[in-house]
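Entry:
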Amino acid sequence: MCFGFSLFRLVRVGDGAYNTKGNQYVTKRIGVLTGGGDCPGLNAVIRAVVKSASVKYACEVIGIEDGFDGLVLPNKTRVLTLQDIRGILSIGGTILGTTNRSNPFEYKVTINGNSEVRDVSHEVIKNIQSLGLDALIVIGGDGSLNIAYELFKMGCPIVGVPKTIDNDILATDVTFGFNTAVQTATEALDRLHTTAESHHRVMVVEVMGRYVGWIALKTGVGGGADVILIPEIPFDMEKVCKKIDDRKSSGSRSSIVVVSEGAKPIGGDVSILHTAETGGSAERLGGIGNKVGANIKCSGMEVRVTVLGHLQRGGSPCAFDRILSTQFGVAAVDLTARKRFGEMVCLRGQKIEAVSLGDVAKGQKKVPTEEGLVKAAEAIGISFGR
């Protein structure tokens, strides 16, 4: 059996796998899907899964298209060969496609022209069995990994891989895609500095991150922002304006304000573009950048707002994310080989480890506000509006 020969050296012969004693093993199957929002580095994980499964374990990999949709709808699976993943290491997005609207426990179906929400999780389990999958690798953020955990509790042999530009998944120091998003946003700040200085303006830049401020914090520090507003620290608009006024009084005639999409004023709520729908899309945040820009009244300075949006999700992954994605993909296949299901690969320090999916489902990883980078930022004069 494919998962039982780790003590033997494998030699590939034709379509079969042989150990050094010449006994042939049945090639096993691993499924892989990408769920939730797209993220730089997804293709690098897929590539590592296919290469590791093929080279190290002589296993077949089945690509499942469009997230969990591929385990509900017909004709959305395909064999992934070494030829299929050639050249995708540096390509953004995912060759398998993805969606954040395919929760099998709350799945929207249309019957006789009417839409309704159903639990189709048992159909997913049956389809996994009919595909002959011995393991399923789910590459996703907190939403997809929570779904994976629920399927695992139903008996599905699942291994998780954490991905999100938001860096909000518990139990891993960092997720792949995050560093690329920060680099993209930081380069945007570099460009905005020059136009802000030329026109003596305040530039407000809204970045992604949902309910945590990791992207805003690291982008703001790396890009030389003067004010950083994050969800973990409700802000006082008067203090934001005072910071900008103080800078103008000292001779600085431009300022950069980085705002996380989940930031909110003291006593206020997050800005929502689209509310969550049962069986549909999750709550979509946004608009706080324009609100902050409209409320900056500082000595008559002009204000301009830039919303980076999905620019942070797209494009080629940076070297760090390519390497981390590769390590995660290999580690995920190793977990399936050892039948350590119900676990997620993670980065702790410099080591790739594994943690229970149950621990991951307990919440989100927030920015610590009284230590680390926040305190370092305040020490160099960056304001958090508090």
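Residues 180-314+367-379 form a domain with the Rossmann fold fold (CATH 3.40.50.460).
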